Amino acid sequence: MAALTKVAGASTLLVVLWVPSETEAVQGSHMKLLCISCMKREEVTANTVVEWFYRAEGEDVDDLIYVYENEKQPIVPLTRFGGRLTWNGSKDMQDVSISVHNISLNDSGVYTCKVNRTFDFDIHHHTVTTSTLIHLTVVKEAGEDFTSVISEIMMYILLVFLTLWLLIEMVYCYRKVSKAEEVAQENATDYLAIPSENKENCAVPVEE
User: Fold this and answer.
1) In 10 A of CB 108, how many CB atoms?
2) What does each C-alpha distance from 118 to 36, 128, 156, 165 come to in angstroms?
3) Which pTM was predicted?
4) SS (H, E, C) the chain
5) What are φ and ψ of residue 152, in 5° steps?
6) How many other C-beta atoms are found inside a 10 Å radius of the C-beta of residue 32?
7) How far apart are CA 35 and CA 3, in angstroms?
8) How confident is the model over 160-206, as pLDDT tens digits?
9) Of 8, 33, 59, 204, which sits most exposed with the smallest number of CB within 10 A?
10) Within 13 Å of residue 100, how many CA atoms lie on the same side as its CB?
11) Is pLDDT larger for residue 61 or for residue 8?
């Protein structure tokens, strides 16, 4: 699977919406790593801390690359991303996505979005943790969309079909006109072959 969401300490206060993130990026572009975690009851206050981790392909260690807590200044550890990460979520902390700018081929790997919510009740605090994994692949050039390829193929097939149909109609009309001209020529030849004294009898009688 391209993305996987795990919930620990789940309660009825949290609704985890699995919205798949894009999993392929083009070198040199920017990419939004989508992570959605919605609260069910807005009247309950919660302190939310979002942590993003990165694990390179072939490695077993997840490196912390971004931390965001409510509307505080984000914490960006010194990592390979070097200022290329920005917050791309919502103020209500339902959308906790980030963006990666100027993506390189070395940015391929597994990104983990870990959301820690601590709900404040009158008598106790309750913590819910969710984790979403995104497997990102960076390519040098954008590949053709499969749907657009199919559309182009269908368009060419339709053009060929219409061209053949038009040719068939033209041949049919040409043969029909030629046949009519041949019949008219035969009738004219037959009429000229009739002696002049008999042509008067060729008049078509008029019905009363």
Assistant:
1) 16
2) 17, 7, 58, 70
3) 0.60
4) CCEEEEEECCCCCEECCCCCCCCEEECCCCEEECCECEECCCCCCEEEEEEEEEEECCCCCCEEEEEEECCCCCECCCCCCCCCEEECCCCCCCECCEEECCCCHHHCEEEEEEEEEEEECCCCEEEEEEEEEEEEEEECCCCCCHHHHHHHHHHHHHHHHHHHHHHHHHHHHHHHHHHHHHHHHHHHHHHHHCCHHHHHHHCCCCCC
5) -65, -40
6) 16
7) 10
8) 888 888 888 888 888 888 877 777 777 666 656 666 555 555 554 54
9) 204
10) 29
11) 61
- The residues that bridge with 32 in the sheet, in sequence order, are 99
Q: Are 110 and 103 in contact (CB under 8 A)?
A: no
Task: Indicate the residue type of 172.
Answer: Y
Q: Identify which of 128, 120, 71, 127 has the alpha carbon closest to the alpha carbon of residue 96.
A: 71
Q: How many CB atoms lie within 10 A of CB 205?
A: 5
Q: What is the mean pLDDT of the chain?
A: 78
- Count the Cβ atoms, other than its own, within 10 Å of residue 132: 25
Query: Among 24, 3, 34, which Cα is nearest to 146's?
Result: 24
- For 49, other C-beta atoms within 10 Å of its C-beta total 19
